[in-house]
Amino acid sequence: MAEQVNHVTEIKHSAFIPLGFNFVKELAVEMMPETESEGLADFMRMVRLLFHYEYLESRDRMKRNFDLVTAAQDDNVSLIKMSEQQLSPAEFQDLSVDFVGDFCSLMADANFSLLTQKEWELAKAENFLFTLPCEIAWNKFDKSLMGTFLKQNPALSQGLTQFADAALLFKRGNGVATAKGRFISEKIEMLMEMCMMEPILALVGKPKVVFAPLEAVGAGVSKKSKKLGGMTVKERTDTTMVERRTLRRLMPTPVAVLKNLFTTMELQEPTFKEVVLMYRMAQPQHEGQKAGPGGAGPLILKSFHDIPMADLEMIFPEVNITVKFKDMLINVSLALVAIVTFLWTFLSGVKWTTETITLISVLGGKVASSATALMAAQSRYAGMMAKELQAKSANSQLGMLMHLMESMEDQECKEMILAYCVLSANGKSMTLKEVDTACESLLHTRFGLRVDFDVEGSMVKLLREGLVEQRAGVLYAATPLRKALQRLDTKWDNLFDYRDDGGAAREDQMVAAAAAAARQVRYQTVEATLKEQLARTDCDRAKVVARLKEQQEEIAGKIKTLETAMTGYKWITT
User: Fold this and answer.
1) Rounded average pLDDT over 523-530
2) Over the Cα atoms of the chain, what is R_g?
3) 142 with 296: CB under 8 angstroms?
4) How buried is 126 (Cβ within 10 angstroms: 0-12 exposed, 13-18 middle, 19+ buried)?
């Protein structure tokens, strides 16, 4: 058996949820009461549609800029003419930098992260299944585009790879690659390197790094259970320890290699689930490809899947494949033997007989054969790498850009819906940590996923839409579903302040006519009421006048009677 050496590396969980949206919908329906299933379906549809609307303008801008930036390499005649007429080389560079900035924002929203220098050193130090010796020709990359972008965003450049000014590498998700076999050829080659090449490199002061510096800690993820609003959830750390089982780690010495030369080995290496590479070449890649304004080379977007960490260098372009040490040693040794034999024959004064000439011819042929074998090996290795790359390639250019845009929208909506349903199903206020733990536990229990759920990002969006209420500063509660639907519906109805002109005019006419009719009825009613009131007032006034007239006539009669009665009196005056 191979010597068991425990070498583990810490892999941080990604915030990406590698599930189709339909699976998240099913999980959400399971959490909510059955009576709210119809409302929940509408809730999820409106969230997705509103989110798509909000990102529509930025999507269109990014696609437009990408079309202009890649017009020359795609031989798009109309866009080439437009860019040449409207954009100077400096303006084209600014447009390219803007696209890089928008693309980086898209990748961040889609939960991709940039490769760091520490991760790159970790990848270069060891080999998994890709053992071909190679060097990347960084001088063929354009460094002005990425370099300008990083200068404008110094905070982003902290900790990035040394080649970040030539290419940006994004990664998302993690996995584990395994391989099983005897790997006899690889073991022999590794033994020869241990015994010959590495001592020579150490003597000349350039020792080969064979192990990346890893912290040997226990494997696994710590878990503990707790009760949360009637649900049992498991708290987990946001990292996983994966053991790196490469041939060199399993057999660190020549003795170990000899002991296990014919032993079946089980190899294991952490992988990056998705890898996206963005770079621009210094000049056109082939004859006939046009350069952009200012002589810019093509801007390339490529994506790969399931790339072992130790084999990361194989995805780069402009990789110069060299022959393996074993092939070099065998062929160079044969060539040296042939040359030495020829020189010995020439200098020792041996007579040039037919046998001697034949021997020298054979040795010369062997030298040529060795050189040809080296070139054939180099071509064979290049073909092996191309085949491996073809198996790992996913998408590129505009197709990949569209996929990433859709993936970003799905990711944001999945986070919002999961966080809302967890809060709603819990039935009471929760802290961010409790929501985070509950969402991660649900994904792990149901689908076996280990993700670092982006609870802060999802909660900010839910608060902005009024779908969650903040209480006491640190507690959050879900807005009741019916009220949440009303808020989403109101926002949807108010996205625009107008409708189709013809429909608006007809509707306005109908409203105006109805209002006029209502006013006419109201005026007629008021007028009739006033007339009735006036008629009653006139009747009452007539009665009062008649009564006053009768009283006046009665008083006049009495006065006349008194005047008649006093006519016979004789008044005495002094």
Assistant:
1) 54
2) 44
3) yes
4) buried
Which letter does DSSP use for residue 396 in this model? E
Q: What is the pLDDT of residue 219?
A: 35
Q: Which of 424, 428, 414 is nearest to 461 (CA)?
A: 414
Q: Is residue 264 a contact partner of residue 179, using CB atoms and an 8 Å limit?
A: no
Taking only the tens place, the pLDDT of each residue in 283-335 is 887 777 788 887 888 899 998 888 888 888 888 887 776 655 555 555 566 56
Q: Alpha-carbon distance 476 to 447, whole Å?
A: 26
Are 267 and 308 within 8 A, CB to CB? no
453 in Cβ contact with 415 (< 8 Å): yes
* Nearest alpha carbon to residue 449 among 25, 9, 15: 15
β-pair type (299-308, 265-280)? antiparallel
Q: What is the DSSP letter of 296?
A: B
- Give me 114's structure tokens: 């940039």
What is d(CA 301, CA 66) in angstroms, rounded to the nearest whole number? 11
Residue with tokens 């889609």, as numbered in its chain: 110
Model pLDDT for residues 28-70, shown as the tens digit of each residue: 999 988 888 889 999 999 999 999 998 889 899 999 999 888 8
Residue 507: in which H helix or E strand, if any? helix 501-565
Give residue-wise pLDDT tens across range 528-561. 555 565 556 556 666 766 777 777 777 777 777 7
Crossing angle of helices 37-69 and 481-493, rounded to 10°? 40
Q: Which residue has the tokens 């790969």?
A: 304
Q: Tell me how crowded residue 440 is: count the other CB atoms within 10 A of its CB.
A: 23
